[in-house]
């Protein structure tokens, strides 16, 4: 490939994260080498900022992070841009989620993710074994971990700014009904939804996605979209993959993602696909 980007944006889940929700030391090493060569490397993830530290190797560094599907951007711990869901939308969505008994996590800026205590029983019930075959092991493990130690169960909503909602259901029918409910609510309050698996949906501010977040990050670094590459694997990556100059799908991505990209990795996320791809194309043999 002749194109050598000045900036590379990497998705996390299903891309640099394997299905055990870990980033390999090999991926870290390749990122370090790329940055040493003067190539900017960024993360563009649906995860909130506070989720990242626990799933990357010690010493893992990138030039910036676009989080919550474009809702916020960070360079180190500095906030470069931030959007927040309005409180009236948060309150209405929780009320409707309760009526539909849909698992939810709300991510306030500056706090752990929260769910209300009055919803705890049905939220926890969504993660009872056995795991449905159609639910990815990485998503299942993340929900298990959230229930066990990540969710802060509260009596009332805390915080004043919110990066996103995450919703999950074991049943595809259940989550699809909830997606339809959200589409109806959009007629009353404008917002954006994003999907990264057949069992989830996320809610962000209207007209915000990974592409808008990347544009804001590029502006901060005085970089152009024509100088960028991105690697991803799922539907919430589509805006990002369509924005950049050169787009790459993971081998483990669905065909609908591969069809719109310029290239596909030779290996999956469980085989260090990103590490092998970037090393083969941009790093010299001595590296």
From TrEMBL:
<dbReference type="Pfam" id="PF08282">
    <property type="entry name" value="Hydrolase_3"/>
</dbReference>
<dbReference type="GO" id="GO:0016787">
    <property type="term" value="F:hydrolase activity"/>
</dbReference>
<dbReference type="InterPro" id="IPR000150">
    <property type="entry name" value="Cof"/>
</dbReference>
<keyword id="KW-0175">Coiled coil</keyword>
<dbReference type="InterPro" id="IPR006379">
    <property type="entry name" value="HAD-SF_hydro_IIB"/>
</dbReference>
<dbReference type="InterPro" id="IPR023214">
    <property type="entry name" value="HAD_sf"/>
</dbReference>
<feature type="coiled-coil region">
    <location>
        <begin position="168"/>
        <end position="195"/>
    </location>
</feature>
<dbReference type="InterPro" id="IPR036412">
    <property type="entry name" value="HAD-like_sf"/>
</dbReference>
<keyword id="KW-0378">Hydrolase</keyword>
<protein>
    <submittedName>
        <fullName>HAD family hydrolase</fullName>
        <ecNumber>3.1.3.-</ecNumber>
    </submittedName>
</protein>
